[in-house]
Amino acid sequence: MKTKEVKINGVLVPCENVLKIELVCVSDQLFREITYRKFDPCYHEVKALVSADKGYEIEKKVRKACLRY
């Protein structure tokens, strides 16, 4: 079965590697902070900051993909 992927700041990330998505406030603006696993060249966790709207779309895709497993 092919895994679903989302694009976070230009990087394709499998949905099962997304660990946490939370809403944060930076300089009086709302953003989504996305924490995901990356295995290149070794395991580490990456935190990415995206706009609230784009982050919500990513969150919907991840939730939908994880319900199918």
Question: What gross morphology would you assign?
Answer: globular
What is the number of strand segments?
5
* End-to-end CA span: 10 Å
Mean pLDDT: 90
Question: Per DSSP, what share of the residues sits in E-state strands of 2 or more residues?
Answer: over 45%
Supply the key terms.
69 residues, alpha+beta, 3-stranded antiparallel beta sheet, two-stranded antiparallel ribbon, 5 strands
Please explain how this structure is put together.
The protein has 69 residues and is of the alpha+beta class. The chain has one domain (5-67). The chain contains 1 helix and 5 strands, in the order βββββα. The strands form 2 sheets. A 3-stranded antiparallel β-sheet has the order 3-4-5, with helices on one face. It has a two-stranded antiparallel sheet with strand order 1-2. Strand 3 (18-26) and strand 4 (29-38) form a beta hairpin. It is globular. The mean pLDDT is 90.
